[in-house]
Specification:
Elements lengths: L1 E4 L4 H12 L4 E4 L7 H11 L5 E2 L6 H10 L6 E4 L6 H6 L1 H21 L4 E7 L24 H19 L4 E7 L1 E3 L18 H9 L6 E4 L11 E2 L1 E3 H17 L2 E7 L5 E2 H12 L5 E4 L8 E2 L4 H7 L7 H14 L1
The structure holds UDP-4-deoxy-4-formamido-beta-L-arabinopyranose.
The site of UDP-4-deoxy-4-formamido-beta-L-arabinopyranose has 19 residues, from helix 7 and strand 8.
Length: 334
């Protein structure tokens, strides 16, 4: 049995579906702060399975213990998705981010310790490479030069906590998956990214321009040191990312200790590459204007994805056209 905290969110819901379809038993704990009941219903429709679900705050240890105690088949592994993840919001409300993202993690680790559960897969982020002096592609042992925002620092701190837990308990396993830029949606159009309010991220902004909710895309700067001057990122299909978690659930059974693993494609695309790929894939024009750079953005960020290939026997399979088509289908079905 695998527990997914935040398992009805964008990455969590896609991972839950892939785990169920791979034959795993799962249970979800989520407070619906960034999702809703409809997502859970769609996950059950997609898999044809009733999913054990607890609407709780993962910081609430009493409620969390009940999740572990209720399961006929013991929980062997936890995938920890639950956490706030808006970079800009974290700059405005740092205490909210540190309180939530650290307390959920520490409560979970305390309950796991009590229940003797020793496999922890963590939803980390490539934002940890944000201040690296090095050049992309980034490997997992890129020198640690800190983060550029409180959201990133919470990921950095939680990775440190997990490293320390693994030193203290040689039987503990922690796999920290550093996501690059997840985009796309389940091919059914039933699951996808549902940003609250005006999207911060590129692809949901593009799909809202395409459907007419937003007037045009603002491209944040075209004077970066990149082929076309716009920012370059490693966009990975969310279903590929989900399958990376399935592979990590197998890997963690046989390996003790802490491992940091990039989940990316190893390929960088610029903002205008994405705009043109979306237009080509869906036959829709995306009007845009070049505006000033966004504070905190870096020019180029993409993964060296070889460690995931080596350790997890996993690599991203879906291409940019599929990412653009699947994102657009989901927006139309929202
Ligand atoms: C991508 C590119 C922008 C919007 C962030 C977080 C990271 C992870 C993914 C949580 C950049 C450009 C964007 C727009 C634009 N989130 N852009 N106009 O900043 O690489 O990563 O989201 O884990 O932690 O840092 O993603 O989608 O915001 O931006 O020009 O309206 O698109 O400048 O070059 P980012 P993004």
């Amino acid at each position: 049995m695998i527990l997914l905290t935040g398992g009805t969110g964008y990455i969590g819901s896609h991972t839950a579906v892939e785990l169920l379809q791979s034959g795993e038993e799962i249970v979800i704990a989520d407070d619906f702060s960034n999702s809703n009941e409809e997502v859970l219903k769609r996950m059950e429709t997609l898999t044809g399975k009733k999913i054990p679900f607890y609407q709780i705050d993962v910081k609430d240890k009493k409620a969390l213990k009940k999740v572990f105690e209720d399961q006929a088949e013991p929980i062997r592994c936890v995938i920890h998705f639950a956490g706030f993840k808006a970079v800009g919001e974290s700059v405005k409300e740092p205490v909210k981010y540190y309180r939530n993202n650290l307390d959920t993690t520490l409560s979970l680790l305390e309950v796991m310790q009590e229940k003797q559960v020793k496999q922890f897969i963590f939803s980390s982020s490539a934002t940890l490479y944000g201040k690296s002096k090095g050049k992309a592609p980034f490997t997992e042992d890129e020198p640690d030069t800190g983060c550029t925002n409180p959201y990133g620092w919470t990921k950095w701190m939680i990775e440190q906590i997990l490293q320390d837990v693994c030193v203290a308990d040689p039987e503990f396993s922690a796999v920290m998956l550093r996501y690059f830029n997840p985009i796309g949606a389940h091919e059914s159009g039933l699951l996808g990214e549902r940003p609250n309010g005006i999207p911060n991220n590129l692809m949901p902004y593009i799909t809202q321009v395409a459907i007419g909710k937003l007037d045009h895309l603002r491209v944040f700067g075209d004077d970066y040191d990149t082929p076309d001057g716009t920012g370059v990122r490693d966009y990975i299909h969310v279903v590929d990312l989900a399958k990376g978690h399935v592979a990590a659930c197998d890997y963690i059974k046989e390996h003790k200790g802490a491992e940091v693993i990039n989940l990316g494609t190893g390929v960088g695309y610029s903002v205008l590459d994405i705009v043109h790929a979306f237009e080509e894939a869906n036959g829709i024009r995306i009007p845009y204007e070049i505006v000033e750079r966004r504070a905190g953005d870096v020019a180029t960020m993409y993964a060296d994805a070889s460690k995931a290939r080596r350790l997890l026997d996993w690599k991203a399979e879906k291409d940019l056209t599929q990412m653009c088509r699947d994102s657009w289908r989901f927006e139309q079905m929202l």
